[in-house]
Design brief:
- 2 copies of one chain form a homodimer.
- Chain A has 140 residues and is α+β, with helices and mostly antiparallel strands.
- Chain A is 30% helix and 21% strand.
- Chain A has helices at 6-11, 51-71, 118-132; strands at residues 12-17, 21-26, 33-38, 76-81, 91-96.
- In chain A, a hairpin with a 6-residue loop joins strand 2 and strand 3 (33-38).
- The longest helix of chain A has 21 residues, at 51-71.
- The radius of gyration of chain A is 14 Å and the shape is globular.
- Chains A and B meet through helix 2 and strand 4 of A and helix 2 and strand 4 of B.
- Strand 4 of chain A pairs antiparallel with strand 4 of chain B.
C-alpha cells in the first residue's frame, strides 16, 4: 500500500496524478519546483522499479519536464533523483533561469523555502491542473 | 555528428559505450562519479530526445546505476540531469555514502575535484570495463 512520505506531504501540494506517479509542487515560490513520486511502496532507487515502471517513469518525467519548460519559459530543466534525506523515490523537476538565486549551481541548500501565499498557490495549481492534468499522452 | 563537450572530455575518462550513451568516469576520486552522455547532437534536455532514445536512456541509466550500486556498495545513488554549466545533455550517476564529505547534500560545489593517481585510475577503469562493458542487457 503506497503512502506518500510525511515530509514530502508537508512540504508540497498535489497537482495531479499520472498513471504511475503523483505530481507535487514544492511549497517554495523561489523556483517552480515539482516532484514526481512513483506510487510504489518501498522503492528508493529508479533502478528498483520494474522494467515497465521505469519506462512509464521516463514517459511521465519527459511529459512533465516539457510542459513545465513551456509553461514557465525555462532556461533549463533540472531533473534529479537524489533521496539522501527523504528515501522514498521522488524525482525533482525544477525550472531554472539564468537569473535565479542559485544559478548556475543546484538549488538544494542555497536558500530556505519561501512558502507561496494562499491565493498565488491556488491560482497556480488551478492553472497547472488545466494544462498538465488533462492530457492523455502519459496514460499507460 | 556527435562530439563530446570539451569540458566533459577534459574532466573525465571514457569507461565504455552503450548503444545510446558514452559512459564516463569523472576525474574526482572523492566520489565514484559517472556520467552518461547520449550520443546525439545538440540535445540539452532528456525530453529533447526522441521517444525511442528516452526509453533507451532509462534502460542504460538503470543498468549503470544498479551495477555501480553493487560494485561500490552504495548507500544511495544520485542520478541527475542538471546541465546549467555544460549544456550538452549528460546524466550524473554518483555513488553516495552516508560517510562521504557532502552527505546528505548534493556533491556539486562542495569540494574541488581530487584527481585520481594514474595507477588507481587504470586499475579502476580496467575493472569497470570488465564488469560494465560486457553485458548485453542494455543493447538496443
Amino acid at each position: 500500500m503506497f503512502e506518500l512520505d510525511l515530509r514530502l506531504r508537508k512540504d508540497s501540494f498535489e497537482v495531479c496524478r499520472f498513471p504511475l506517479s503523483r505530481v507535487l509542487m514544492m511549497n517554495d515560490a523561489t523556483y517552480p519546483w515539482f516532484v514526481l513520486v512513483p506510487q510504489r511502496e518501498g522503492i528508493t532507487e529508479i533502478h528498483g522499479l520494474t522494467d515497465g515502471d521505469q519506462l512509464q517513469l521516463i514517459r511521465e518525467s519527459c511529459y512533465l519536464s516539457k510542459k513545465l519548460a513551456t509553461i514557465f519559459c525555462a532556461d533549463k530543466m533540472n531533473v534529479a533523483a537524489l533521496g539522501n534525506v527523504v528515501s522514498q523515490l521522488h524525482i525533482h523537476h525544477i525550472v531554472r533561469y539564468n537569473s535565479d538565486p542559485a544559478w548556475p549551481g543546484p538549488v538544494w541548500g542555497v536558500l530556505p523555502a519561501m512558502p507561496y501565499d494562499e491565493d498565488e498557490k491556488e491560482r497556480l495549481l488551478d492553472s497547472l491542473r488545466t494544462v498538465i492534468g488533462r492530457d492523455i499522452e502519459v496514460t499507460a
